[in-house]
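Record type: ASSEMBLY
Status: queued
Input:
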Amino acid sequence: MSGTLLNAVWQGIVILVGGTLLGMIYKGLDRKLAAQMQGRIGPPIRQPFFDVIKLMVKENVVPDHAVGWLYNLMPLLSLASVATLLFYLPLGGFQPLLGGFGDLILILYLLAVPSIAMVLGGFAAGSPLATVGAQREMVMMMAYEFPLAITFLSLGWTLSTFMPGAHVFSLSVLAANPLWGMVGPLGVIGLILLFAALMIVTPAELAKIPFDIPEAETEIAGGILAEYSGRNMAMFYLADAIKMVVMGSLTVALFFPYGLSGLVGLSGAWGSVIDVAFYLVKVFVVIFFAVIVVRVAFARIKIGQAARLFWLPITGISLLGMLLLTLDRFV
Amino acid sequence: MALPRSFKRALWVFHVATGSCNGCDIEIVAALTPRYDAERFGIMLTGTPRHADVLLITGPVTKPMLPRLKRIYEQTPDPKAVIVVGGCGSTSGVFYESYNVVGPIDEVIPVDVYVPGCPSRPEAIIDGVVKAVAKLETLEKSGVGG
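Status: finished
Output:
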């Protein structure tokens, strides 16, 4: 028993370190590629590491008006909840480490925790800019959670009609049974619509342009993060980097859980290597189209526009996807 | 404590205009455009002094800006560097001994690097930012700053 526990601890450390490094590299690629698209040379890919090391050296200021303990606790909570998410996701084709202890519903809740931590941190900072940012973040959460929940529920429900009795919300079950091959043509259209909804929710979840309204550097001076500096800021920075991996892995696990090892005919260690490499490419492709291209191509929209966008068209798209999947199963 | 090498490669700058004519400010913006691409050295413009490592200050300090300039300096977390961009901030320039001007910026807060010019060239501004960190490091070594 203690051997299994030790093994789990080792795997946990590998996942944490690997997930963090991966997030930082994706963040570096994000900045490099965005710069290239704008006709610039751009920072080196290891730029996020420089940023974090620098932030760790800087003074950690707690403003006079801030609620000290809440202000200092929230970056930690944000980083901890995002790191916990890594344990519930199938990374690189492997089973999730804590897959037996939590499923998609838990992930839905855990995804909300970093945003709530940022809201509380923003209010605790006691600055008008941070307060405005925190209020906007709350509106954003109310806006994008609904289409996200519909997407998760539709996938789980559709799988439950094929596999009655199975634990359909478990990510390992969802990843082992991709729906694309099971449903009919109507269902495929429904899945495409749900995938589109998830791809539009992803930049909002990550607070990237055009949905970086709560942070809005040029408008409310970093919003929620306006008063954060030094170590606290570094923790939010890391949480943001890891969340990119989380959202990418979630999309890959739900919609593209395919591996290459079976196709190439390799098994064992080399099969795992190929699967992990393929998984990294898949996550990168998701991030590339959901975050990098979108953030270069669009400007920031207003909070009212964002709320309307998520409540009407995106919710409509995801509900239509759900309806098509239902029709596909029962007609 | 010596500054890590990463510090030099990840400078976030905050731009303060203390009553300048907007000439130097436009040159600062030019230094951040794709043509000069300051981000390839890790230099980024931040919206708040809390995130800043370097303060880029332009203009002769007008009287209403005096308390605000001091406040912004105090809000910036250590270690930090101050760069004066342009002739007005360095020497008061054409506003020398003017009735509504406090004086050069180094009479209000400690300044590390002066970038002369009316206005300064974007290349000179980027060079000034890099020099400011070199100066910060030597001060740390001799135990003066910090």
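Annotation: Chain B touches chain A through 23 residues (CB under 8 Å).
Annotation: The radius of gyration of chain B is 14 Å.
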